[in-house]
Amino acid sequence: MTEIRDRIIQIIAEQAMLDPSELKPEMSPQEIGIDSLGLVESIFAIEEAFDISVPFNANEPEKSDFDISSLGAIIGAVEKLVAEKA
């Protein structure tokens, strides 16, 4: 699962224009510097990278089944989706 984690960190870091080493699992998208549009673009990039469909509604993120509260939560949710797809 390290590949999944590393790829997600890379996608989020690119979106925030940060070095991946600056990102910590406990950081929220806001702390990383990603706004709602950036988050949507990151989700699209993650879906494309892993060929998965993320249950995320940009208009109502709090009603989503996809936990975006922190980088670690996003990684865990994507790992679960990838595992379910396999």
UniProtKB/TrEMBL annotation:
Keywords noted in UniProt? Phosphopantetheine, Phosphoprotein
Point out the signal peptide segment.
Answer: none
Q: In terms of domain of life, where is this protein from?
A: Bacteria
| Positions of the Carrier domain | 2-82
- According to the UniProt entry, the coiled-coil residues are none
Protein's UniProt name:
Phosphopantetheine-binding protein
Give the source species: Paracoccus thiocyanatus
